[in-house]
């Protein structure tokens, strides 16, 4: 990828990973990018690197601007290896003794990833560093997305290098919000739902802190996807909404099925919801990746989960999804369960237990149907959908 001058003397020098389709467990159908930034001032600083296998491409990109040996320091905003994997190649190329700035946790975590005794400089929250005519400020952002994470803010240009925050898994030559347009928002939403949702409370605190500090933002430069330069406020506002877990009059009916019985039940529940005016998404885990379902859950008031009883338990894809959703900690949701069975029929009870563990409000014991739903069974499912819709309305009216 050709480097892009994003502001005078500041370049995006990272790489596109066009073919990655699974990023530690969630689907990335548009690939991803590992962004890195080069600031050429009296001193030259590199912010973050890329995955190990792309390190030479990063170095080639840098070499189109300056001789990599002229880089004076590297800043590691985040230890995860999509941003630090290239460090050994980069440090070897620029000089192993060059300062490597990171947070205190970054020092601990980088040292646990790499054997090299680099010239680490752990920075304090709020510490400043001059590059000559420009000043960098480091801001700790623990758990966004690892304990070592930090932002680096370039005061004079009002640019925030935000590491994972505000990113999207999206590979493209077009690198700015004003070029890509609103098409980027579903990717930003999917990224938040699958990576950051569980840190919602911390994100709200961080955004409040940024507002209190009066930090002006001309540009937000994440480590994945496009750069927000036309309207950085748009992604900040979206993060506020998502972090508050504000939901809509929308339900996700997520299920898997063996012989279409649980599927028939799912569709009947969806009909009942729809008849009451709820936007509803029936999603089979046999067809949809868990991360796509989770993206829909992000703004859904109700999550209705269905599974056939399988070997006295849940169908494996449903167990997988419940474990995944539990880890991401959605809050303030209504839940319900359904499923077909042959002889033992434990699935509904097991789903309810999981949903209760997530503190979902269970508004009905759920519907179990032996073998294949008849007309009466289908009607019971439609009625469950309607009952959920009424509970959703009560919730929405109360907020
Ligand atoms: Fe893009 Fe947490 O790494």
How would you sum up this structure, described in words?
About 35% of the residues lie in helices and about 25% in strands. It contains 13 helices and 24 strands. The strands form six sheets. Strands 1-2-7-8-9-10-11 form a seven-stranded mixed sheet. Strands 17, 18, 19, 22, 23 and 24 form a six-stranded parallel sheet that branches. A five-stranded mixed sheet has the order 12-13-14-15-16, with no helix packed on it. Strand 22 (about 335-340), helix 12 and strand 23 (about 360) form a beta-alpha-beta unit. The protein starts with a strand and ends with a helix. The mean pLDDT is about 95. The structure holds MU-OXO-diiron. MU-OXO-diiron binds near residues 78, 83, 145 and 223.
Label the structural class: alpha/beta
Low-confidence stretches: none
**Rg of Cα set:** 24 Å
| Number of alpha- plus pi-helical segments | 13
Number of strand elements: 24
Explain briefly what this protein structure is.
With 399 residues, the chain is an alpha/beta fold. Helix content is 36%, strand content 25%.
Q: Strands, helices and their partners?
A:
Blueprint: E1 4-7, E2 10-12, E3 15-17, E4 22-23, E5 26-27, E6 32-34, E7 37-40, E8 44-47, H1 55-63, E9 73-75, H2 81-84, H3 87-94, E10 99-103, H4 104-113, E11 119-123, E12 128-130, E13 135-140, E14 150-154, E15 159-163, H5 177-180, H6 185-196, H7 200-213, E16 219-222, H8 232-243, E17 248-255, H9 261-275, E18 279-284, H10 290-297, E19 300-306, E20 309-310, E21 313-314, H11 316-328, E22 334-341, H12 347-357, E23 361-362, E24 367-370, H13 375-398
Parallel strand pairs: 8-9, 9-10, 10-11, 15-16, 17-18, 17-19, 19-22, 22-23, 22-24
Antiparallel strand pairs: 1-2, 2-7, 3-6, 4-5, 7-8, 12-13, 13-14, 14-15, 20-21
Helix pairs in contact: 1-3, 6-8, 6-10, 7-8, 9-13
Bound molecules: MU-OXO-diiron.
